[in-house]
Amino acid sequence: MGQAYVRIGIVGSSGPGKSTFINSFRGLKAEDKGAAPVGTKETTKETAEYPHPEHDHVILVDFPGALFKLQGSDWQPVRFNMKEYTRKFGDKMKECNVFLVFTSDRVHDNAVWIAAKAKEMKKKVLFVRSKFDRDLEDVRRDKPSFFAEK
């Protein structure tokens, strides 16, 4: 009997660090060979699979961010269309065992819709809140009294 694969879908809005997480999980930096592309603009336009270098049965599946849509030759923010997203990526979603839904601030409708679709497919869903350290520093700078000893 062959080894079972664990496919972890990495989904969520654009920009919370999904590809950075994939690289970190795999022990890579953005400029390393085989790393998931990262950038300040939408970089993931199609799904891509990234096996763990030491545990090749663990595969991270990077999905495009849910806030952007191809408009001509450029990715632009548009109203998210779950039907279109699942039409394009639904088969790949079905292959995943579990989903990590990334957000870097509030949990937006798009992330909830993706999580709900994954749950409809009987998949486990976990939410990941990234960049919390930045928000904490903003509060520390803007409201220092919040951190004062009482």
From TrEMBL:
Coiled coil: none annotated. GO terms for cellular component: membrane. GO terms for molecular function: GTP binding. It comes from the Eukaryota. Residues 4-150 form the IRG-type G domain. Gene3D superfamilies: P-loop containing nucleotide triphosphate hydrolases. It holds the Pfam family IIGP. PROSITE patterns: G_IRG. InterPro entries: G_IRG_dom (IPR030385), Immunity-related_GTPase-like (IPR007743), P-loop_NTPase (IPR027417). Belongs to the TRAFAC class dynamin-like GTPase superfamily. IRG family. This is IRG-type G domain-containing protein. It comes from Branchiostoma floridae.
